[in-house]
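Why Beta-glucosidase? Reviewers of the renewal asked for a concrete example.
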Amino acid sequence: MQKTIFPEGFLWGGATAANQCEGAWNVDGKGMSVADCSRYKGDLDPSDYKGHHTISSKDIEEAMESNDTARYPKRHGIDFYHRYIEDLDLFQEMGFKCLRVSIQWTRIYPSGMEETPNESGLKYYEDLFRAMQKRGIEPLVTLHHYEMPLYLSNHYDGWYQREVVDLFLKFCKTVYRRYNGLVKYWLTFNEIDSAFRHPFTTAGLVEDRYPEEKWEEIVYQSIHNQFVASALATKYLHEMIPGAQMGCMITRTLTYPENCHPQNMLLALKENRKNFYYSDVQVRGEYPSHIKKEWKRNKIHIVFGEEDEKILKDYPVDFISFSYYMSRVSTIDDTNKEQVSGNLTSGVKNPYLETSEWNWQIDPTGLCISLIELYDRYDKPLFIVENGLGSTDRIEADGSIQDDYRIRYYKDHIQAIADAIEEGVEVMGYTPWGCIDLVSMSTCQMTKRYGFIYVDLDDEGNGSYDRKKKKSFEWYKEVIATNGSHFNND
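Here is what the prediction returned.
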């Protein structure tokens, strides 16, 4: 048995997003969100990142006219909305200390514009949090996880219009009041850096509605408005729920240089620095100079409110959370070089890494590097709130699911966390993504499975929705029960 190095109170658990698991898209007064426009494109190559994420005005019109759930899988999810008690019982059996969930804005304010909140939506999440509390599971709640009201995208240009800040803060204050005493840990915007990768999903922006030459400015303005909203959401949380903690959430897009050529080294440095920009603003409370230089070079004009810089400085987050799935390689010359894909965009293949079934590079050491770099940069607690392996799981003749590949993936990544802790990094917890199978964010598939728990559902929406434990279920249960001391035992 190896020595336990994970701290007492470490928050082992799992992560979900409401729009990918709840279903019940038009139940109990819920309004339509941007996620309800995400369509399964089975004829499209899964590696076509842009193809899966591009949503046009025509696509939105078609979605608004359709009640189809098979074509729009996030509308049915895994029916967590009606089956959460069953799922929480399974999470409790695994020993979860923490479960990351999100609150769908459109369950509370269906269009984002209502004067009074929807009581059915408020009651649902209250029941969910009380059920978690009863089972000793700490909620980690994301306020904005790719679930913006569609009305605000159509009528307020998503996060581009400043009025949306106040509408979001009204939502935040409403849930703070209702869930005071039930939720201690909160996150503002999921992967706030993703606005350039999938602008509609992240910020309600539809590219065909704007002049091409203004697009970059529009995205940056939307991100700025989210930064201000994040700071003010943190302010109100501290005022309304003393002792509660707010975190930011970024995608850690660790970039290596292809080799030690000085120009490749410089390119990788710039890529990593740009990734840190999103946490710099939310943690340090100010824009890094290189971003302002970029705006000046590219004639990008961002409108700041009179108090914006003070707001950002006065209300930084308490901790940094992030997703980590893969690393990237940057090069000044990618001619005739093998490419890989992922949740970040495509890039040059790293010859020292394996790739997953979905052509994502698997790099546990990169998680250790990321933890050390983030902690050295900010000296604030870190929380890995997404990490995992998407795979096609097979049910054996005896009914079992022998997902040893997933166990191996988690062994290596948990070892990376342990190595970082040994280096002095303060890590709050670890919530692997899709702890129960759910609808994929990017491709809207069910066959791309992440969970310790199998859900009987296919890409076309067929299945019983029944839950089944995988081999990794019992393995992760033992990891949690021993606070990580058994994670590397066979």
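The longest helix spans residues 215-240. This is the kind of structural detail the renewal will allow us to pursue systematically.
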